[in-house]
Amino acid sequence: MEENNLMQANMKCLEKRISQIHIRIDKYVNSAENSEKKIDDAFADLSASGETIAAVCKDGRNWYLNSRYDAARAAKIWADGLGEIHYKSIFVLGGLSNGMYAKALLKRMSSENILFIYEPCTEVFLQMSENVDMTDLFGDERVFLFVENINMDNFREYFKAIFKYELINYSQIVISPGYGRIFSRQLGDFNELCQKETNFIQGEKNTLVELGAEMVDNELHNMWSMVTASTIDCLQQHFYENHIDVENIPAIIVSAGPSLDKNIEDLKAAKGHSMIIAVDSAIRKMMTHNIMPDIIITIDSHKPLVLFEDERIKTIPMVVCGQTRCEIYKEQTGPIFVFADNMFTLRFYQNFNKTISTLETGGSVANNAYSLARFLGFKNIILVGQDLAFTDNRKHASDVYKEKEIGEDENEKYTYVEDMHGKPILTYTNFCIYKEWFEGEIKDHPECNVINATEGGANIKGAKNMKLQEALHIYADVHFDNSCLYNVPYAFSDDELGEVYESLNNMLGRCDELRGKFSQGIRNYMRFKELVTLGKSQTSEFRSIVSKLKEVNSLNQDELIIELLSMYSKADEYEVLNTMYDSDGNDAQNDSMKAANQGMELLSVYRDSVETVKNRITELIEYDVNQDVYEVTTYDISFVEK
Amino acid sequence: MKAENIEMLIQDIEECAVCLYENNIKAVQQTIGSVVQNINNTYLFYINNAKEYTDRGIEIPVQILLSQMQNLLEAVDNQDIIMMADCLWYEIREGLLFFKDVECEIANQ
């Protein structure tokens, strides 16, 4: 694609923010189905004031996305009409247009605000990039641009990374004038996407509040088992070096939905012709039918051990994380591959320059399994047992769980979704979230071919529905040797494990230092309040106190242990953070006192958690590491027959 | 037509236009119908009485008024809020300011 100077300049700015922007644009422009619509539907024009403005031709009519008289004035009116802007707000703007609305909004925003821009019309983005200098907009660090057909696959990742639970109430979706009328469907879908992601953040918060302390316990109990294993990155690299044909070999994800009863026997034909990934709930049933998956994935710290009773399971390669039930780790003799499920694990490995990736999820282990298949590069992914609904009025396949029947006492947990035949089928609201996650993934990653061979249950939009036999006939006419799952190098060498051990010991000492810093921080806040009350906020002592408080408050960015403290005390932390950014705006002294009180509360919460976390780390070193240290240097891996 | 009435209509139009530029559809939903009706009535008054004003030495630009009304109605029909806002602020408002001057001039005569 020939580029004019403006386009070049705009793209140079975007290169730093959107990876492979040129490739993404070229892919869009060159794709056959879009070539007719390349630029025709959108065009640039001039306003009466000489500004370049955006317009689209739709249904035989020209629709202008900016004022045809004075676009800058109109944009200012729009931005001023948004009212007071909280300094922490995150705005999600639907409609880039010629960039003027975004620029007018940015002028009103502080350095801490964030602006997500969603452009539903790729052609508008391309036309405006060719005709308008938007380098100041694209280069603004507060701005994150997402364009339909270009980089929407990154949106959810950025949303999750930037939206914190405590900022949701200060954030809003706003629409550029004109876009609501012309792009109502796209904006409706986008709004729904934002809602789903927000619900997910809410769900995560609820989980952390309820289980945060338990998660820290699990993480530390499992830590040594994790560092003495391989990561999913090691496995990915191993696949790459051994030229595993992930383009053609399908990955089959086996879940424990009721429909698994119908076609489990058909899975036997898949063995040796696909990589079979079993979620933990499906394992028992598979063992009953003597079907050995190539890999198991298990995450839930509450998973009943009865699912893992069969001795053969211990030898099957397993994908786990910090939250996996620790008894499972300990019993496993087959290869273990770990992934990061929280910032502590990520940062812990990063401290040793080790990569450990995450596996995106919508909350179900089957979602993680799908992410694993994508992570390893599989392009054909077959879902089996993925009912995500109560097929034939059952929740799971037989031999999985002894579970409660569908009943009125659980009514508030149920909802209806569409089944494969377009009819309503009952399901859990949680299952609906998992299903929507799959649908979002399928939409964001069209390079993956997803086949739903469940033969029942909810319809997963975007997945091809077919019988398992047919799916195997089409996609499993290849050979897969699962020996590639063995002999995968570990993440840490023996020498590096020595450094890990030292690091864990250092964390104990650091706990005591942090406790001291938090206590001092609380004393500094008290002095801060005294000085504000006495009207001495212009003194050098005040400035020195503020500087020390900034230091203690920036600890969480640098200090690994605070990730654990934060997880441990999530309920208390949220209580403080929920009102952290409230301000009545008019009384600076009041605001200062309030901020100081909240700061003291937060530091107290962390200080009170230090002792517990320190005890957990001590247990980790004494019971897990020290017992294993001898074995580290003589780690013997025995593999079972495939 | 009285200059005060025209002035009130101008204020209504300005409020509507600003709300439309703000993308605040809810704020105009209740009033846009009556505003458009009032504009219609005012414009038709001047179009129908153009000859009388011409006799007084005041040229009423009938074609321009008709074109402005057409633009406004097209914008309303298509729910094109940017076109509506532009039309109200830069065309209709200007037209009404002209009529207000005309009425003031006549009142002073």
Descriptive key words:
heterodimer; A: 642 residues; alpha/beta; 3 domains; B: 84% helix
Lay out the secondary structure:
The complex is a heterodimer of chains A (642) and B (109).
Chain A: H1 5-15, H2 21-30, H3 32-35, E1 42-46, E2 52-58, E3 61-64, H4 71-80, E4 90-94, H5 100-108, E5 114-119, H6 122-131, H7 135-138, E6 143-147, H8 155-162, E7 172-175, H9 179-182, H10 184-227, E8 230-231, H11 232-241, E9 251-254, H12 260-263, E10 275-279, H13 280-288, E11 295-297, E12 318-320, H14 326-331, E13 336-338, H15 343-350, H16 365-375, E14 380-384, E15 414-418, E16 424-428, H17 429-444, E17 449-452, E18 464-465, H18 468-475, H19 494-533, H20 540-553, H21 555-558, H22 560-568, H23 570-577, H24 588-632
Parallel strand pairs in A: 4-5, 4-7, 5-6, 8-13, 9-10, 9-14, 10-11, 11-12, 12-13, 14-17, 17-18
Antiparallel strand pairs in A: 1-2, 2-3, 15-16
Chain B: H1 3-21, H2 25-29, H3 32-48, H4 50-55, H5 62-78, H6 81-108
Helix pairs in contact in B: 1-3, 1-6, 3-5, 5-6
